[in-house]
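User: Can you help me understand a structure? I only have the sequence.
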Amino acid sequence: MLQIQRNVSLKNFNTFGVDAIAKYFVEINKKEELAELFMDPQWKQMKMLVLGGGSNLLLLKDFDGLVIRVNIRGIEHRISHNEVFIEAGAGEVWNDLVNFCVIRGYAGLENLSLIPGSVGASPIQNIGAYGVELQDVFHSCNAFELQTGAFKTFNKEDCHFGYRESAFKNELKGQYIIVSVKFQLSLIPHFNLTYGAIEQELKDRNITSPTIRDVSQVVSHIRVSKLPDPSTIGNAGSFFKNPVIGAEQFDQLQAKFSEIVHYPAKDGQVKLAAGWLIEQCGWKGKVVGNTGTWKNQALVLVNHGGATGEEVYTFSSQIIDSVYTKFGVMLQREVNIIS
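Assistant: Let's start by predicting it. Here is the structure, written out as tokens:
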């Protein structure tokens, strides 16, 4: 029997550690419980927030509606020739899935090691790191449709993946709850080692023929050295997207700022390192009230204790204005703002 709780603190359900109250709260452990929940029509009409690991959101105030925490677990896998198909429940911790695959020699997720959050959130955000995005390994996902109570499978084309974007953040927003995700991996690794400091770290370790485990360990090491642990200090990982601009605008910027950190993007565009832009504006390690940027990575905003969502949001707006004034580039928030 589902238990709907009232007036529940969400402080332990978001990695920013922002204290906000949910008017109603329910935890879903099996996908069938979603059908049971929405048999009651009052929940269909109510404002709703679906939570997994709570790692990619900022709560600006108390939530006057129903918070659904998806905690559906389980990992299944099937091998066909050199392909490996992995299906994981939406409530699985993302890094637990990565470790499951790395230990067994299933290649494809190693660059995505130590990303916070749950499996269910991964296609919504099209998570990515070190040159790999979820869409590169995505096969399909199964989701519950709120209006009809039916379960539907979405393939890669259905999801309309973009940079930190998907149909679930845009045209399908609020219509579905993801219950499981299937990935297509390989027994034959094809490593992407050119992004960030992976190559250098492997070289420093005298590793010339890396294994899947080597790459995962190096990526984890780099992330730990740059990013704060949410269990120690509240944060949501990268707060801003790396901006993508046209070649002409980039040439103008590079002429003025020769050291600008950049990477090639699709269709001749250029991706800029948002952390570098923010750092050049003097924000790295800056503390303002209860919030600030992380000392080792300006892309990460942190809660030094007691910060409200509004305080973090206001601080992020100051950074956006500062970067635009100096570089003419408009940063976009990567985290979901819940108001």
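Now, to help you interpret it: Residues 112 and 131 are 9 Å apart (CA to CA). The radius of gyration is 20 Å. Let me know which part you'd like to focus on.
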